């Protein structure tokens, strides 16, 4: 389904992504982990064509999507939706309009400029919001929602494109543990129920282990691990994160239980922050 062949992105002399190769045979739930600066975001941005690659090929169903231009590139971006850490919603617009923005690539800007959306699109947006458990939020301004709800609106906007691939760049990094769990459950569901390929950059090991079918570990732009969650031992994680023997897994955890038992003060600080 997807094959990366020596995908590389240079910034000056530095390779942010360095000859990355892997194959995904069928739609799965794939996690990419690695410490800050490992190249995870750059890789996803190349896949969505928000950033150009320096060299290499990324074949999706046999076509090199890194070489697409103009209309074909935009069509690919329609099939490959992206979700961001900061949700990227229009805060003052209502929730259903934000979801309808997922049709802009297909319909152009006019409907959004005049606030006119075709009825069938509006009904579809409402149905998606219902499916994600936030139908009653449809008329509210996006900025009035909690972070977890906003991220579900962003997922709904992505689903409006009916994409084959969903890319999620640190989708839960701004959320508290409870909302993080709801958002990860939602992403997992849209893979399980719709059969879409989901690739998520994750900064916590426990999330990758719990939700992913396969985990790719990146370090300094390179793939240093590619396997199943049960192969992701503490030793392997230490290699990926480039940490020494004092590496402590709980430092990369967002689990509610772990945080709760790690010390009430630390937990309270985190929740308050
Ligand atoms: N536009 C840019 N110009 C120059 N260097 C960049 C640019 N974007 C990313 N980099 C560099 O590329 C490397 C990889 O960055 P990237 O954001 O892909 O890592 P990451 O694993 O996603 O980390 P994080 O989780 O902190 O976002 C870093 O060294 C970063 O400084």
UniProtKB/TrEMBL annotation:
KW Cytoplasm (keyword) present: no
Domain of life of the organism encoding this protein: Bacteria
Residues covered by the ABC transporter domain: 2-245
Sorted UniProt keywords: ATP-binding, Cell membrane, Membrane, Nucleotide-binding, Translocase, Transport
Any one GO MF annotation of this record: ATP binding
CDD domains: ABC_PhnC_transporter
Protein name from the UniProt record: Phosphonate ABC transporter ATP-binding protein
Gene: phnC
